[in-house]
Amino acid sequence: MSLGVRRAEDVDELPAVGGNYRIRLAGADTGGRLAVVELLLDPGALGASPHVHHGHEEDFVVLEGEITFDVGHTEVVGAGGSVAVPRGTAHGFRNATARKARCLMVFTPAGYEDYFREIGRLVASGHEPTPEELTALRAEFGTSAV
């Protein structure tokens, strides 16, 4: 495997409902080992309603602001904090504050970054996905709603 290098200008910037995504490392860059997606979450925005990933782990590192995580209980995590979500564990998250929040999401193995590409494509076309559409799209990526 060759070294995967992404410079700032190589980052995929994708619109989202309530913020945007930046794919920092994709599976193509890491031989499928992992993907890193930066999430910028607007004040008061829902990042994700409760869901379960069946094929990968998802870990978060909060870089700015605070993010409220629902992981069987509620945890408010500020800048510098992190949350590890094992595969098969229900979780959701939101920005319950009046300030922007920013975090890195690490997916192991890679693949779920393509879910964000699909969301970005829909939002860029002017379509805000409905909860039913999100549930169907998540299912394509081995994820189910709770």
UniProtKB/TrEMBL annotation:
This is Cupin domain-containing protein. InterPro entries: Cupin_2, QDO-like, RmlC-like_jellyroll, RmlC_Cupin_sf. It comes from the Bacteria. Residues 40-107 form the Cupin type-2 domain. Pfam families: Cupin_2.
